[in-house]
What does this fold into?
Amino acid sequence: MESPFAHSVNYVGHSGIVLDEIGVDRVVGHIVVDEYHSQPYGLIHGGVHCTLAETLASTGAACWAIEQGMAGAVGLTNKTDFIKGVTEGVIVGEATPIHCGRSQQIWQVFIRRESDERLLAQSQVRLQNITSTEF
Amino acid sequence: MESPFAHSVNYVGHSGIVLDEIGVDRVVGHIVVDEYHSQPYGLIHGGVHCTLAETLASTGAACWAIEQGMAGAVGLTNKTDFIKGVTEGVIVGEATPIHCGRSQQIWQVFIRRESDERLLAQSQVRLQNITSTEF
Amino acid sequence: MESPFAHSVNYVGHSGIVLDEIGVDRVVGHIVVDEYHSQPYGLIHGGVHCTLAETLASTGAACWAIEQGMAGAVGLTNKTDFIKGVTEGVIVGEATPIHCGRSQQIWQVFIRRESDERLLAQSQVRLQNITSTEF
Amino acid sequence: MESPFAHSVNYVGHSGIVLDEIGVDRVVGHIVVDEYHSQPYGLIHGGVHCTLAETLASTGAACWAIEQGMAGAVGLTNKTDFIKGVTEGVIVGEATPIHCGRSQQIWQVFIRRESDERLLAQSQVRLQNITSTEF
It folds into this structure.
């Protein structure tokens, strides 16, 4: 029997992502980073940045699509540049739309260290609007 | 006091990544995907693909760099294309080098569904070789 | 009055691209590079690689789409990595499909120096299939 | 004997790029697009957008690097998203820095139609600073 506990916190939850602001113009979230998020060199794993960016961009794109009467949006491409490695502290991601079109959207995400606003990573996510969530 | 349990499994572990083969020419890993990995539509979260790709590519690039007498490699850019959404099953990622140079490497990762080898995502990771792991 | 000469050779022609092989599985083309293609440092302009990749990938994707009864394919994203700069010589690009789907395709392009097959650039182009060429 | 005329206008010139503003914070350029720039469907060739973006970003990055006492910057990766196809008219590209660091820079380029400022393409170019232009 599968433990219900196993899914009480899912992948995004285990990434430590906390959503702070959700909207069609801006989505903000943060992670309290510590050694849990590290790759073997002690720096934050690049996948954490990708996952934070994907989460924020998808949330914003879905909100916009739903506001337009569509069902949502699914990711096509996530391109994340890693700029500065960190070992711990609060990182804050801010997603804003570059393009919201009939069929596709592009959202940009800047991930900064909260303490000094230094840019750590930046990401662009291209998404496809969907008219149904039946897959 | 920080619970030792909290870090007994880290981010990569909680992603469910299992490394099956490690080498300078090829790195393979898999994830048993279920609703834990889902975004709200029930499909695997794009960040899982990014994280699997980043883990495999970085592992291979570090192996190659170390074999050349360097200290390792850190990610510059992760570009992941999402091709087919899945809800559950085993996904297998295979990373192979496109370019291993003096200062940088590029690795490509194909992520397939194990059952029918269908391509689900593909990723390219560009990395910088490093001569020290003191950051 | 617009000079007919002005368009006797178009942008792709002025890039120097010569298509050598066209098919749904592979498209090959080359450019004889010299100082015409240089940026101020004397190295080939990155835009030449992008343009060669875009041309080869689009040609292959259009062929595949037409073979499936669609009208063609248009580019969504071109991601080109520059690996080794050159000043002159023949460069050869080879495009092959990574994914040919109902709605989208992804093609990969390797651009090599003909003389020693050294990898100079590599590109991935994501395209949308189209059912009409009326824009 | 090679015609001197052949190189009186180079690749960037034949792309039709005109630089309007050059600086470490912003580089602007435009192209008067017509059928010369078209792919077979009559739409602007994606390579034109890539080449405009590469030219603007490289120019800005080189200016910044030189101002810091370095020799310049060379492109690592150009990722260009195509958003809206056009057949003719003036397109204007604006490049601004996302990150200017000791070893690398990332510049973003928005390409808009002049007449209505509609976003046609957007690009991100990652570059490596160089301390010498001897290659």
About this structure: Chain D touches chain A at residues 79, 81, 83-84, 98-99, 101, 106, 119, 122, 124, 126 (CB under 8 Å).
